[in-house]
Design goal:
Pfam families: SnoaL_2. With 117 residues, the protein is of the alpha+beta class. It contains three helices and seven strands. A hairpin with a 6-residue loop joins strand 5 and strand 6. The termini are far apart.
Length: 117
Amino acid sequence: MNLADQYFAMWNETDVDRRAGIIEASWSADASYVDPSFETTGHDGLTEMVATAQEMFPGHRFALTGEVDKHHNRLRWTWELAADGQPAVAGGTDVVTLDADGKIQAVIGFLDFAPAH
């Protein structure tokens, strides 16, 4: 499973222990995540953030929508959030920084569209 697959598996995994394993395998211990809705650091913070997103959007799944761009220690991808067979309710672009071991060190997320709150 490549890093983008692991990233989206993290967002979609509902079992806390399996999600923690995905995070441990793919994120550095002091990793950070920030987007307009969330800001967190560390494995525990990531686990809690995903649980919150799943509570906000029950039955929805995140999916990669294009190719993964890579240069140096940076990745960029686009995604959408949708329930099966339904139009996407949110979408965006993430810019990922990798650490020296190839794990996710930081994610900066930009929302292209999202529900109004």
